[in-house]
Amino acid sequence: MSVKQLSVFAENRNGSLYEITKILSTAGINLRAFSIADTQNYGILRLIVSDPRAAAMALSTEGKIVSVTDVVSVQIPDEEGGLTELLRVLAEADISVEYLYAFVAARGGHAYAVIRVEDNAKTEEILTANGFTLLTDEALRQG
After folding, report:
1. Kind and range of the H or E run holding 120
2. For the domain 3-68, what is the CATH superfamily, name and number?
């Protein structure tokens, strides 16, 4: 039930992010969430999009370096302590979080966390057992 995340190598220069988002926009891809990790010369843009396969193909065709990774996306309450409760469950299950970023839904009063962990299946099982709702690629396509 994991979600496909694109990681795109982006030069740390003026217009680099614009080029990437323009490629996706032209291909009819909607950005759902993103995170940027950077260094002095380059960055890694992590994206959750409406159509991961089409996005990866469009970016690759334009010469961008892109990889696709399975990550866990989980719904959390958009309120104080929502993220804390998620992290408590993971900590108590001894699940180490490699990285995490979050986004808020435009409707529905929910936020979502995108989590990179070592074992997606175990993490999904524990989160589901603790009452969390997981986000799917299909839900992302529908918006």
Report:
1. helix 120-129
2. VC0802-like (3.30.2130.10)
What ranges do the domains of the chain cover? 3-68, 70-142
119 contacts: CB under 8 Å, gap ≥ 6: 95
DSSP string, the chain: --EEEEEEEEESSTTHHHHHHHHHHHTTPPEEEEEEEE-SSEEEEEEEES-HHHHHHHHHHTT--EEEEEEEEEEEESSTTHHHHHHHHHHHTTPPEEEEEEEE-SSSSEEEEEEEES-HHHHHHHHHHTTPEEP-HHHHHH-
Q: pTM for the full model?
A: 0.86
Q: Please give the DSSP secondary-structure letter assigned to residue 15.
A: T
Q: Which helix (H) or strand (E) holds 20?
A: helix 16-26
136 secondary structure, DSSP code? -
How do residues 91-110 score in pLDDT, each as one tens digit? 999 999 999 998 887 666 78
